[in-house]
Amino acid sequence: MAPSPSAVGRGKPADGRSESCRWILEKRIALVLAVALLTEALTWAPLARGLSDFGTSHPFEFSASLVKHVNGKKYQAQVFAKDDRLRLEYTYAILTQYGYAAIEIIRLDKNEAWYLLTRQKELLITPLDPDDVLPMRPPLPGERSRTLVGEATAVGRAAQLYEVQTDRQGRVERWYEWVDAQAGVVLKLVSRDRDWSLEYERIRWSPQPSAYFDEPLGYRPRQSGLTSGKRS
Question: What is the architecture, at CATH level 2, of domain 61-223?
Fold first, then answer.
């Protein structure tokens, strides 16, 4: 039986409305996707630019010039950092129990500090004292409390400024600490209770050679059960 003219007439407008609704829905989905993609691009672009400043190998690899002030005296060193390893090349000689050294290698993975005794061609290996290690990341040794002061700048980089209190072997001390906002590295540290401070003057984020942190060729290892105790 053929459909009546009235039934056919009612079906045509329904199909037209369906096509129109599908067209509107597709346009809305396309608009939502476009907005999502734009939002993602705007979010990741600054992050990508920030990460590019840290080198392509690893964000926690850098070299820097370090300045330390203790009781009116100024000490300087060049610092090389790679993950859990440090190399410090001092502009002055450090007196150890077996002679002077101008280069120190910190191996946190081995819990050791190495001193290059160039005159004897020896590598003095000592146990690592946490209180004697250049602070790289918070928290500080013996930390008891930490309060965020606010945003700040150190070494020309955005940083978070903290008030920190430590208790090391019964000696309570208060600090101001500047932490890099992106890398989490301690850029500057100042004691509020004595004439003591350290900060980086220049810092460059770039991959560091692994050989900087290995035992140097031609040096004979010499073990010592004593920590250096050299720093103030």
Answer: Clam (2.50)
| DSSP class per residue in 16-57 | HHHHHHHHHHHHHHHHHHHHHHHHHHHHHHHHHHHHHTT-SS
Distance, CA of 188 to CA of 124 (rounded, Å):
29
pTM comes to 0.71
Return the domain boundaries, the chain: 8-52, 61-223
Query: Tell me: the pLDDT tens digits for 144-175?
Result: 999 999 999 999 999 999 999 999 989 999 99
Q: Is the Cβ–Cβ distance between 75 and 92 less than 8 Å? A: yes
Q: How far apart are CA 98 and CA 82, in angstroms?
A: 28
